[in-house]
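For reproducibility, we list the full input for the UFG complex.
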Amino acid sequence: MRILLTGGAGYVGSACLRWLLRHGHDPLAYDDLSEGNAAAVPAERLLRGDILDGKTLAATLRERRIDAVMHFAALASVPKSIDQPEAYWRTNVLGTKCLLDAMLASNVKILLFSSTAATYSFDAPMPLAEDSPQVPQVPYGTTKLAAEHIIRDYARAHGLGYAILRYFNAAGADPDGGFGEHRREETHLVPLILYAALGKRRKVFIYGTDWPTRDGSCVRDYVHTDDLALAHQLAVEGLRPGMGRIFNVGSGTGTTVLEALRACERVVGRPIPQEIVARRPGDPAVLVASPAKLERELGWQPRFPRIDEIVETAWRWHHGHPDGYARR
Ligand code: UFG
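The corresponding predicted structure, in tokenized form, follows.
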């Protein structure tokens, strides 16, 4: 399939693009490079454009004869969304509406949407199934949930086929070590631990060990970007106009912050400088997926089910490219 990936030069988007390329598809990235990295995708597959530029989007969909869209373009930091909700509503909600309007104008009927575990109520029993209550508590979650609603309304009225994939904690890098996580400003746990291991940061801060969990630190469900990409491949290949599907994408295993840190120390082979500090606003204690529906309905099985394997790929990338994509 010829697939347009909005945000296709970003961390998850570019991993999906490279995966689709290896699995017989014809993917193109549409990215304004505000957060993405040109070097993360082949140059001939990168189209520069803004998600809020409906005219260019519609022309791109038409002229490139796009069969399906995967919509990754978004602002995706929980802490930043609390301080700048206006930016999140604009990019995540208006951006999705703008894309849907362009799809209608150019008769593209298939859409995959990157949603998030942050749309769920954090008080629901874990692991979370897809029908768990959605009561987001931070603007990142409210804007992604609003985008889910717009997609469902448009799909019902106009016969789109859609799949909403709710990611848990994306982590890891290309297993060959050539591509990985690189943001202008990093806030995520695994890269920050490995930056401390490399000496790029003095230490990693652990946000609280007074949570009601097995070791007092927060529990998350880390899922490798190739396993996310596999979920996208399986979802798009089975989607037809008029269908609507929703899947969690997580490993089903909870890992505490301290366990992730120990895994990094095992992989790196030495202690990593660390300090326990106060809790971070907006964090839930525990967030774990049930991937049962994804496994049952699409036959998805993670290739990197263990945190150590995920960290090994991330370390290969960070160790081999301490400046990320900066020098490419
Ligand atoms: N953490 C630290 N130190 C750091 C960074 C993170 O202790 O320097 C902790 C966080 O407090 C959290 C865990 O590590 O407990 C993971 O934090 P990340 O920032 O890596 O990721 P989040 O859990 O905040 O983000 C994830 C997903 C989002 C989802 C969100 C819901 O990436 O899609 O959880 O809270 F919305």
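The chain is about 40% helix and 15% strand. The mean pLDDT is 97. Both points were considered when choosing residues for closer inspection.
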